[in-house]
Design brief:
Chain lengths: 481, 485
């Protein structure tokens, strides 16, 4: 869509479930997919008399995030109660942070399509508890409530309205997603709702200083949907304004089936959340020592890792970017390099082309790869020590994927060891020459192109096991008139 | 048996003069005989009490158990007790059976070995000063059954005063232990905020609520408070510091004790007869070597208005969970979600609770928060500063607990403000978080008068010792109401 006369302003609020074993304010488990209400203890259920106790793992994760986006980690942050009535909100209020969040004033740099870098401000990130789920389609005329998710720790990450297109929004989200997964604070599973996004979108005529009226599209849970929802909103808002209408500040919902957003509630009907500091929880105090201790546990972040891969392994930037896309993939690659003793670039090719290609076909994550890093390292090692050729290696890799064992076992079982014994190669060459006198004569009379034919025949005669360099060298010598 | 002190009961049980079962049965019989006049119990748990008594007897027979093992108690019906209705005196929780025990229930029953006789009546959700807001009907004052016992811990004090429990738990958000103790000739103590766990105590106003005990003497109160107190990892506002020995220091002399008399507590509004009793107590304490100075708590007149912003604000939030969805009263025949909420809550909550929810919702609303709640928190700091300053000069602060003796049932129910003014002397201690207690100091027209002592943070032992020393030379606390022998 063309909207040349309009500038788009986008701010994103991401709800990221923190990967703690237990809930943010109780000892109930957080695992996804349990039978309804089996992970709801009296605290989760909001029973009379229960009290919240902060899960310090959740706090540590929030601090880690703050450090990763170069933000200020508040020495003192405060939990507040946000009130509204809904059946999946057990206490009638959500414990969140309001005036004093744990993280403020950070940023994330994204790469634009033209290769330039743009800095997106992160206004704040605060800890809060997730609500439960309402199940509307299981009982006729009634709604079911599943409170397993209630009390799961969330980090709500709020960006500045620095984003100017749906592409930038997706780029920011992907970067943020990569970061929280790298930090080990979120499993990143968007389908299960571990990472979901509210999109604040407005448009203004180019050159206008003031922001236009914004709408907020809630709970969009895939990168593609974010792009679609934002594009739809931009188009809709421009259409409304160009038709002489006004944008209403409101909350909207995205429908993935139609690709459209629809109004959920307008600002006039917005809740008055009656925030006030939760008297059941003391202010959260994080000392400089605490921060230093947490900083020491920070993993290497994606950018640093990418730069190191370029430097340490001499990889092209593209390879380094792909390999550091996920911490698990980067770890896999480094294990292959270290244990195979092979060339770093060869290892990168195997991981990027062969392994990722195969995983992609299988629809598997790196963690589920049928070929483990030691297995791939074993294969690369056999190429490096010339036990097999690169071509044979492809067959061995296929066999490993099929579960036929490690490289050595497959090479042995299939008799794939490369022939480097020159007398055996010469014998094969002589056989081929004897069987093809016509081609031999043509070659010797100047038809150089037939050299490939003799290579192919000789390789075939050795079941592909002849060392290619030796074969080439010997064949040239033998074919010479 | 019901005239013996906690210490005497413990000694008799350990000497096997009588068993915990016999003692418990004795109290159960007394409840059956006398409680119909008082309505102090909402639920009597006779079978559980006897089973717990047998368990206590077994422990005692093995030479195990502590000073409280086998001595029964009554629990205010604000504390969650597994398998027993925990109603908070509200229709909302009339059918609510808790799946878990409050920390103090664990400490007093499971650990200390005190059999629970039953759950005691109170003002609905502890909101009231007369125990007339209970869904289960008002509690009567054993000293005059046409009068209120005070509130919100009205059931706790009526039961102990009439000998229907040797001791009872209670809670104090703005005076709910001290005012009823004063009106029924009992000794009641609200410890420092955070000294006793709030886990399992149904919240009214979280930053003010504190559990304590009502007993027939400071010594009795000290022993039970000792067993209730202590850090609880389940309560983030619980104090992580060791509990002082409250019992051993009870014999100490109070020679040289510096007592402050806040002039604001002796100003207009204090009944002359009550004043005379307080003056009598001052004279007794002087004889014991205490010295008195007038002090000022200049912000204390702001206590009541501050309290009636902070407490309803927190209450409106704490009571939001009672929505008819997971437990508690649910209106019948609702089809829409809004109806489920509004009708369940309208039917489940009584008028005083609804009034406070509305006040609290209002003061937290957008545009009013700064003017009310935030302002009240600032005043609260001033009130705290008053105490901090005064405790640089004196060891304890002394004054009346209530402006007057017990009033007639129904006499203030139509006038909430005059009802709220009952707590004028008690509220400041909650706002500041300091320990405070009430003890008997005489009678006006045959009705008990309470003396209030307030101490600095963690000074429970000091307060209890002053009270104990006073009770060594006076007999007011030994007086019992007639008709409950």
């Amino acid at each position: 869509m063309s909207y040349d006369n309009w500038e788009v302003v986008i701010g994103l609020e991401v709800h990221c479930q923190l990967q703690t074993k237990t809930k943010i304010f109780s000892g109930a488990a957080t695992a996804y997919g349990a039978a309804p209400n089996t992970q709801a203890d009296p605290v989760t259920l909001g029973f009379p008399g229960v009290l919240p106790v902060l899960n310090h793992d959740a706090l540590q994760m929030a601090v880690k995030f703050g450090l990763a986006v170069d933000a200020t980690v508040a020495e003192r942050s405060v939990f507040a109660r946000k009130h509204y009535f809904y059946p999946d909100l057990p206490k009638g209020y959500q414990i969140s942070q309001y005036e004093l969040p744990i993280v403020a004033c950070g940023h994330l740099d994204i790469e634009l399509a033209d290769g330039s870098i743009k800095r997106i401000g992160i206004t704040r990130a605060h800890m809060e508890e997730d609500a439960g789920k309402s199940v509307h389609d299981a009982y006729a005329g009634q709604s079911g409530i599943d409170l397993n998710r209630a009390g799961t720790p969330l980090l709500e990450i709020v960006s500045e309205p620095d984003i100017r297109s749906s592409a930038e929004a997706v780029s920011y989200l992907k970067k943020l997603h990569q970061l929280v997964v790298y930090l080990g604070i979120c499993d990143g599973n968007m389908q299960e709702g571990s990472f979901r996004c509210d999109c604040n979108v407005s448009v203004r005529p180019r050159g206008q200083k003031e922001f236009g009226t914004r709408t907020e599209t809630k709970n969009v849970n895939s990168f593609r949907y974010v792009e679609k929802a934002i594009e739809y909103e931009i188009g809709r808002q421009i259409d409304v304004i160009e038709a002489g209408g006004k944008i209403v500040q409101e909350t909207r919902l995205f429908n993935p089936d139609t690709g459209e957003t629809r109004s959920m509630r307008s600002k006039e009907n917005a809740n008055d959340y009656r925030y006030f500091p939760d008297p059941d929880l003391l202010p959260v105090v994080v000392s400089a020592d605490d921060v230093a201790r947490i900083r020491a546990t920070m993993p290497e972040l994606p950018e640093a890792k990418r730069n190191r891969f370029v430097e340490q392994y001499g990889l092209p930037k593209y390879d380094a970017t792909v390999l550091t896309g996920e911490a698990a993939l980067a770890d896999y690659y480094e294990a292959v390099v270290k244990t195979s003793g092979g060339d770093a670039k060869t290892c990168a090719n195997w991981v990027i082309t062969d392994l990722l290609g195969a995983l992609n076909k299988l629809g598997k994550e790196i963690g589920e790869s049928p070929v483990s890093a030691p297995m791939l390292a074993g294969l690369v090692a056999r190429i490096a020590d010339k036990t097999i050729s690169g071509k044979i290696a492809k067959d061995v890799f296929e066999a490993m994927l099929a579960g036929e064992g490690d490289a050595d076992a497959i090479i042995k079982a299939k008799g794939l060891v490369q022939i480097t014994d020159e007398s055996a190669i010469i014998k094969a060459i002589e056989d081929v020459m004897a069987k093809n006198p016509g081609q031999l004569a043509e070659y010797r009379s100047g038809k150089d192109k037939l050299f490939g034919f003799f290579v192919g025949q000789a390789m075939k005669a050795t079941q592909g096991k002849a060392n290619p360099d030796a074969l080439n060298r010997l064949l040239k010598k033998k074919l010479a008139p | 048996m019901h005239t013996l002190s906690i210490k005497q009961l413990g000694e008799a049980l350990r000497a096997r003069k009588f068993s915990s079962r016999e003692l418990t049965q004795h109290y159960l019989k007394r409840i059956e005989a006398f409680d119909p006049q008082l309505n102090s119990y909402i639920t009597v748990t006779a079978d559980l009490a006897l089973a717990a008594a047998d368990a206590a007897d077994a422990r005692l027979a093995r030479g195990e158990g502590g000073p409280l093992t086998g001595i029964p108690l009554g629990q205010k019906d604000i504390f969650c007790t597994t398998g027993v209705r925990t109603s908070c005196a509200s229709r909302m929780l009339d059918k609510f059976v808790s799946p878990y025990d409050a920390t103090i229930v664990k400490k007093l029953q499971a650990e200390a070995g005190m059999p629970m006789l039953g759950k005691l009546n109170m003002d609905e959700f502890a909101m009231g000063s007369s125990n007339e807001t209970s869904w289960y009907g008002p509690v009567k004052n054993p000293w005059d059954v046409t009068r209120v016992p005070g509130g919100s811990s009205g059931g706790s004090v009526a039961a102990v005063a009439a000998g229907l429990a040797p001791v009872a738990t209670a809670t104090d958000t703005g005076g709910s232990i001290r005012q009823p103790a004063a009106l029924t000739n009992l000794t009641g103590i609200k410890p420092t905020y955070g000294r006793v766990s709030r886990f399992g105590m149904i919240a009214f106003a979280s930053s003010l609520d504190q559990a304590g005990v009502v007993a027939r003497s400071a010594e009795d109160a000290a022993q039970v408070l000792q067993a209730m107190s202590g850090f609880d990892p389940l309560d983030s506002t619980s104090l992580d510091r060791p509990v002082d020995d409250l019992v051993a220091p009870l014999g100490r002399s109070i020679q040289g004790l510096r007592v402050g008399l806040p002039k604001e507590y002796f100003a207009e509004g204090l009944d002359a007869g009550v004043r005379a009793c307080i003056d009598g107590a001052i004279a007794e304490l002087k004889k014991l070597g205490a010295t008195f100075t007038e002090v000022s708590l200049p912000n204390s007149p702001l206590s009541v208005p501050t309290y009636y912003v902070v407490a309803p604000a927190e209450a409106s939030s704490n009571l939001a969970r009672f929505d008819g969805v997971r437990y508690g009263h649910r209106a019948e025949g609702v089809t829409a979600l809004e109806d489920l909420y509004s009708r369940s809550r309208a039917e489940g909550f009584g008028p005083e609770v609804q009034r406070r929810i509305m006040i609290g919702t209002y003061v937290l609303s957008h545009g009013y928060y700064d003017a009310y709640y935030l302002q009240a928190q600032k005043v609260r700091r001033l009130i705290y500063d008053d105490f901090r300053r005064v405790f640089e000069q004196v060891d304890v602060i002394l004054g009346p607990t209530a402006t007057d003796v017990a009033f007639k049932l129904g006499s203030k129910t139509d006038d909430p403000v005059s009802m709220y003014l009952n707590d004028i002397y008690t509220i400041a201690a909650n706002l500041a978080g300091i320990p405070a207690m009430s003890l008997p100091c005489g009678f006006k027209d045959g009705l008990p008068v309470g003396l209030q002592l307030m101490g600095n943070f963690f000074d429970e032992a000091k307060l209890l010792n002053v009270a104990h020393q006073y009770q060594q030379v006076t007999g007011w606390h030994q007086q019992s109401p007639k008709g409950f022998e």
